[in-house]
Amino acid sequence: MTLDADVIVIGAGLAGLVATAELADAGRKVILLDQEPAASLGGQAHWSFGGLFLVDSPEQRRMRIRDSHELAWQDWLGTAGFDRPEDAWPRRWAEAYVDFAAGEKRSWLHGQGVRFFPVVGWAERGGLLASGPGNSVPRFHITWGTGPGLVEPFARRVRAAAARGLVDLRFRHRVTGLSASAGSVDTVTGEVLAPSTVARGEASSREVAGAFELRAQAVIVTSGGIGGNHELVRKAWPARLGTPPEKLLSGVPAHVDGLMLGITGAAGGHLINGDRMWHYTEGIENWDPIWPQHGIRILPGPSSLWLDARGRRLPVPLFPGFDTLGTLEHIMTTGHDHTWFVLTQKIIEKEFALSGSEQNPDLTGKSVREVLRRALPGATAPVEAFKKHGADFVVADSLTELVRGMNEKTPDALIDEAELRREIEARDREMANPFSKDLQVTAIHGARRYLGDKLIRTASPHRLLDPKAGPLIAVRLNILTRKSLGGLETDLDSRVLRADGSVLDGVYAAGEAAGFGGGGVHGYRSLEGTFLGGCLFSGRAAGRAAAKATG
């Protein structure tokens, strides 16, 4: 049989680029397929904030953060909650990944030109016991250049390999089938889609212009998850999270459709942990959308008052930035899909960041001058634009006016001003109380003990109803789809496994398609900064293993 390449990689996102770069460095000939136009090279990673989970890094040590492999592994286990027989490989991947994050990950990236913002972020703080979910210390390292800055070194390596004749980039190629001969998957079939000139992230045509069939010794699936396909999200929605939301925003482009997972499953690959998913609870409608139902996530500091749809505070420890899955589970018991932040201008200026490369032009553009402007009074320009144009924002000079605006945002007037006023005034009294029993107030004071939070992420404690801190702001928050935590079960060489545990010969998987490794390396929850890192780690493993197998 004539082969068209040594390896075919399906999906030109970050994991696919890393796998392709590793294969090319080993001298293998690669065909890289993607259903989108060339403008979307890099996939979802391009749109990301560029956050990476690192352990005991120089950036942490400079910020006086004491971290260790042991502490990170404790946090990972407490967060993942592995409790199923099929968690055997995911747990082994988790061990390997924490070793990577505490070991060569930073030096490997640094050698390729990746640099980091000096202030380490503290995501997913947990708020329960030491052995429970969450990061015990700040570990969220922002790539200088955000998502595009992380994609660029691998895209550069792939383009250089293409110039040497080792990589054949084929866009607008949508895979529809995998088949085997002599017991090993070696054939990829599909449709050639009509050329498209849409910009990166915009929905492209699915008009079919032709067909293709390609053969190689091995296939690596790096096609991503299901976050852009709300039908699949709702189908996979677990009973423990209640009824799926009627309204979902998309944190990823429409081409993140999950179709390749079904195709690989039909070829014999074992899909596990499909009910584990990572959707954000702080989603807002993008006033200037790029893809359908485009949502942006607020990355909040700890001070906003978080209320359910009826204006009741969320229970401890569901404070902003503490426990994403716990918050999602609670919201789905309230009978409503949305919640509210109530805050002040003083809080939004210091504590609101927006996830995504396009919402952080200073970091994405690597402008030191613009980054330093964050320390000046006023919110960032993207945040102010959302405050002015965003459909989910209410700005008012009084609580009466604020409640009126909140109730106008929903079909029914659910917020009672008198009840909300009592809640806010009770919280405000605690702000001046050094012995406060309000655990969110305690959390705010605790956050300000960390230099990074005090400098740029946590407003000085104040009363919400203090006119000097105003105006008052309310933000309606929606459920935002993002990541699949389950996927194709793989061994530590990224080889896809069958349901009986045997290897599906010829097929590898990496990135979100593999649950970022093993079919679910995160378990039920993420520590954040681990999605891009999972693409890097599993993509590298797949590329190196496939190179060795096809040598």
Automatic annotation (TrEMBL):
Alphabetical keyword list: Flavoprotein, Oxidoreductase
Domain FAD-dependent oxidoreductase 2 FAD-binding: 6-532
Alphabetized Pfam families for the sequence: FAD_binding_2
Highest taxon of source: Bacteria
Entry-linked SUPFAM superfamilies: FAD/NAD(P)-binding domain
GO function terms (MF aspect): steroid dehydrogenase activity, acting on the CH-CH group of donors
PANTHER family xrefs: 3-KETOSTEROID-DELTA-1-DEHYDROGENASE, KSDD-LIKE STEROID DEHYDROGENASE RV0785
Official protein name in the record: FAD-binding dehydrogenase
